[in-house]
Specification:
By secondary structure, the protein is of the alpha/beta class. The chain has 16 helices and eleven strands. Strands 4-3-2-1-5-6-7 form a seven-stranded parallel sheet, sandwiched between helices. A four-stranded mixed sheet has the order 9-8-10-11, with helices on one face. The longest helix has 22 residues. The structure holds NADPH dihydro-nicotinamide-adenine-dinucleotide phosphate (NDP) and magnesium ion.
Length: 386
């Protein structure tokens, strides 16, 4: 029996690489449902090639175009967020790859967890916003969450076979992004074109900007905290520009295990699909002749304030990470449309953190309200600044 995979966000960077993994193993995996938000042409092309049971377009205004383009095929066509939430619960679905970007991934992922579908999680914002709630939901329903993010996949691979052996520390590696060596003065004038050019990874626009500002690493610290049940003090960020070591775990006896490989997301995607097995792949191998030096540095939270703000949010807990996530989403899209400077993003996020009411024990409804309020406040601050 082939594993039936629902890909939420199939037209994105992770989504298209997941389809390459499925193409590599037609005997093992099948795309059961493909979904997108706006890029209807890509979704049509993917549907024609992979012949899923169904497709969903989140943006309902694109439905007629999609429906007509697939009229000659036996593929069900749906639109809207509710359809997205329902489709993941369908019986034949064996696994849900959450590869949508941002807060929008939260509700469909929660629905899939409730339906006890193992989750391959790329959408880190889900754990950033509501990590405690997601963990509880997964525990109650007995739903496994398998990391796709390369660092977390590395940690997960280091933990394989370790049973209850205690983790002393997680060493979360970071490439440092395109501005690793930039001074504060240089950072003040960087453009979106520069920020969109990541030295090691080809990714969607939002995570590429998050990587440049190091908010991505802050989010990954939160993600690690919830995925591996460690305290924030047990997670250390290590800047490693070559991006060969994808992360490490230090155990209680002092031994450190690391996972190494090419910076290729198809590896962690495939591992989440095949776990606990490993399956052969034709993806490029790491060549030690061409990577003679592995270097390590401390992250600089003075130049990269977003990382400090993420740590603060993690320590404060409650709805604070949700506030940071919402403000950050607003800022990233503002930066991409030249409405805020690179360093200005941290100012807006910090002010939003101070203005949105803090809740120590938020419910799902509280998160929804917090997200909306933080977006409103961040927008207001942006507008006043301009
Ligand atoms: P992309 O922007 O490339 O793709 C996002 C996908 O989600 C697209 O299919 C997009 O549809 C869809 N989408 C966006 N907004 C909505 C919405 N409101 N409702 C429904 N669908 C939506 O992002 P990435 O693939 O780069 O990243 C996806 C997630 O994976 C993010 O959370 C990111 O942090 C995480 N991640 C990504 C990595 C990478 O290498 N790319 C590495 C590690 C984690 P459309 O194409 O129509 O816009
Ligand atoms: Mg990562």
């Amino acid at each position: 029996m082939k594993k039936q995979i629902a890909i939420l966000g199939s037209t994105g960077s992770i989504g298209t690489q997941a389809l390459q993994v499925i193409e590599e193993h037609p005997d093992l995996y099948e795309a059961y449902v493909l979904t997108a938000n706006n890029r209807v042409d890509s979704l049509i092309a993917q549907a024609r090639k992979f012949m899923p049971e169904a497709v969903v377009i989140a943006n309902e205004s694109k439905y007629p175009e999609l429906k007509e383009a697939l009229a000659d095929l036996p593929i069900k066509v749906y639109a809207g967020e509710d359809a997205l939430c329902q489709i993941v619960q369908e019986n034949p679905v064996d696994m849900v790859l959450a590869a949508m970007v941002g807060y929008a991934g939260l509700r469909p992922t929660m629905n899939a967890i409730r339906a006890r579908k193992p989750i391959a999680l790329a959408n880190k914002e889900t754990l950033v916003v509501a990590g405690e709630l997601i963990n509880e939901l997964a525990r109650v329903n007995g739903t496994p969450i398998l990391p796709v993010d390369s660092e977390h996949s590395a940690i997960f691979q280091c933990l394989a076979g370790e049973g209850n052996n205690g983790i002393e520390k997680i060493l979360l590696t970071a490439s440092g992004g395109p501005f690793r060596t930039f001074t504060h003065e240089q950072l003040a004038t960087v453009t979106k074109e520069q920020a969109l050019h990541h030295p090691k990874w080809e990714m969607g626009a939002k995570i590429t900007i998050d990587s440049a500002s190091m908010m991505n690493k802050g989010f990954e610290v939160m993600e690690a905290r919830w995925l591996f049940g460690v305290r924030p003090e047990q997670i250390e960020v290590v800047v490693h520009p070559q991006a060969v070591i994808h992360s490490m775990v230090q155990f209680e006896d002092g031994a450190i295990k690391a996972q190494l490989g090419m910076p290729d997301m198809r590896l962690p995607i495939q591992y989440a699909f095949s776990f606990p097995e490993r399956v052969r792949s034709s993806f490029p191998r790491l060549d030690f002749d061409t990577c003679s030096a592995l270097t390590f540095e401390r992250p600089d939270t003075t130049r990269f304030r977003n990382l400090a703000l993420a740590y603060e949010a993690l320590h404060r807990g409650g709805n604070m990470p949700c506030i940071v996530n919402a403000a950050n989403e607003v800022c990233v899209y503002a930066f991409l449309t030249d409405r805020v400077s690179f360093l200005g993003m941290s100012d807006v996020i910090e002010k939003t953190m101070m203005r949105v009411p803090f809740l120590a024990k938020p419910t799902y409804e509280d998160y929804v309200q917090t997200d909306a309020e933080a977006r409103r406040v961040a927008e207001e601050i942006l507008t006043k600044n301009n």
